[in-house]
């Protein structure tokens, strides 16, 4: 009878536990390096930011956030072909992420490769229908392409008054968008770099800016209620049609949350790297959630969908993401 070479279950569990314990210091070190890289990028210290990002990638070479940040830094350094390579490989490894497609389009548009920029933006929208940045960039790009097509048509039909009017309209749209043709990159992955993520000189529409402030305030109020273990305020942050985990009854889910909040250990919840896309009465927010209770510390990506109900933004969906 042949003997199995597979180690016993207890031994395998010990090996797995050791692997987790050994990986934890690398994860914390990488998080610190990326935080420093984001701060350096925000200060315009690009070489130093790139060096920190490369150090982080040595610890976790496949990490999507680190690779995305590297692409952003290379973009700022005008090293376009290298940045295109970074974002293209990210698209191959993580096709569900819209941001690398968007930033790839930024680079293509900067080089006048508008068809490739359009394809990249359409992929971004497919990956996330609620990704407002990609929709805006795609609209800007269509305006630029329309102007080019109308201009070419007028070369062969110079007396066409309708074409002239269309060309004038397209040109006006382009002039109204100084950074047309996909010139708005996705934000960097670090909170301290968020100030550098938008277009230079851009002033958000008043209503859009107000909506973003309201959504952020709703999320931070939710985190604060959780931190102070205020069950009523915490549960009030969720919409009546909130999709409970596993579809369990709402009352059972609320009872479980109340039991969790009633435990003696203090809780601290922090929201980092907040990004959002708002479409009408619906907002999709992505952020890094840090949780601490007693000796337990965790950090995970989270995606939330909020809906406007009256004068409040309430949580309709909540899931852990990469």
Keywords:
alpha+beta; 322 residues; 4 strands; 15% strand; 2 domains; globular; Serine Threonine Protein Phosphatase 5, Tetratricopeptide repeat; Nuclear Transport Factor 2, Chain: A
Extended strand count = 4
| Architecture per CATH nomenclature, i.e. the level-2 architecture of the largest domain | Alpha Horseshoe
Question: Can you write the helix and strand succession as a string?
Answer: HHHHHHHHHHHEEEE
Which CATH first-tier class of the largest domain would you pick? Answer: Mainly Alpha
Radius of gyration: 24 Å
Count helical runs.
Answer: 11
Structural class assignment: alpha+beta
Q: Give the name of the CATH superfamily of the largest domain.
A: Tetratricopeptide repeat domain
The overall number of domains is: 2
How does this model look, in words?
- The protein has eleven helices and four strands.
- It has 322 residues and is of the alpha+beta class.
- It has two domains: 19-182, Tetratricopeptide repeat domain (Serine Threonine Protein Phosphatase 5, Tetratricopeptide repeat, Alpha Horseshoe); 207-321, Roll (Nuclear Transport Factor 2, Chain: A).
- It has a four-stranded antiparallel beta sheet.
- Strand 2 and strand 3 form a beta hairpin.
- The longest helix has 34 residues, at 9-42.
- The chain is globular and about 80 Å long.
- The two termini are 46 Å apart.
In summary, what is this structure?
With 322 residues, the chain is of the alpha+beta class. The chain has eleven helices and four strands; from the N terminus they run H-H-H-H-H-H-H-H-H-H-H-E-E-E-E. It has helices spanning 9-42, 46-59, 64-76, 80-93, 98-110, 114-127, 132-156, 161-176, 206-227, 231-236, 250-261, and strands at 267-279, 282-293, 296-309, 312-321.
